[in-house]
Design goal:
This protein is mainly alpha-helical and 230 residues long. It is built from ten helices and no strands. The protein has a single domain, classed as Urease accessory protein UreF (Orthogonal Bundle).
């Protein structure tokens, strides 16, 4: 097995200490309002988000972020331009998230991943002051550090998101862990297809139709009792 695949396994592992387990990204609202009563509804929801949600924009940006991060870390005449490009795209992706809770999630998970990579020997390149990366850009930096191919990184991003959502569903729907594993397998062909498609897309040519997800994420702050932070 290529070493890159082993590094990919480490990146998508639930043991990655970035705090993903504490977020539901609106799933908690949908369950409390009776919109996700069973496994079938959960897999339909996840499929729609994988096909048409903001997640697609983030995943399609990963190859571009990787290219600019390589230029930034490589030095040379274009280093400052590359840094600006990374931070601009990072900010653009954050702006796609309507809910303050989800933007805070993206920042926290991104900072945790950047910090982890620095602790194991891959700090971000120095620039004009510290650069805080949100989750997609931090994931792209992980791809650069671990020498992954863009399509591998996109696969990992989609798999990681799906696993986190199913983990939240196990605690909310209720959904048994064995059933969650069945759903993960059921979604595998879609994950592979979307990764291949998004590796060839220009993010600016895409749009998000995840209106329901955005509304659910905005309403999470209004819940009387909550298990999750988003």
């Amino acid at each position: 097995m290529p070493e890159s695949r082993l590094r990919w396994f480490q990146l998508v592992s639930p043991a990655l200490p970035v705090g993903a387990f504490s977020y539901s990204e609106g799933l908690e609202v949908l369950v409390q309002h009776g919109l996700l009563p069973d496994a079938s509804a959960v897999v339909d929801w996840l499929s729609c988000e994988l096909e048409r949600g903001t997640l697609s924009l983030e995943a399609a940006c990963l190859p571009l972020l990787m290219a600019d991060l390589r230029r930034w870390s490589g030095g040379g005449a274009t280093r400052d331009d590359a840094r600006r490009a990374v931070l601009e795209r990072d900010g653009w992706l954050l702006a796609q998230r309507e809910a303050a809770e989800v933007r805070a999630q993206q920042r926290q998970m991104g900072a945790s991943l950047v910090g982890l990579l620095a602790d194991i020997g891959w700090p971000l390149p120095e620039g004009d002051g510290p650069a805080a990366l949100a989750w997609p850009a931090a994931w792209a930096w992980a791809g650069v550090c671990l020498e992954l191919e863009p399509v591998e990184l996109i696969e990992g991003y989609l798999v990681s998101w799906t696993s986190a959502q199913l983990s939240a569903a196990v605690r909310l729907v209720p959904l048994g862990p064995t059933q969650a594993q069945r759903l993960q397998l059921q979604l595998t062909p879609l994950l592979a297809r979307r990764a291949e498609q998004l590796s060839r897309c220009q993010p600016e040519e895409l749009c998000s139709a995840g209106v329901g997800a955005g509304l659910a994420q905005l309403r999470h702050a209004e819940l009387y009792s909550r298990l999750f932070r988003s």
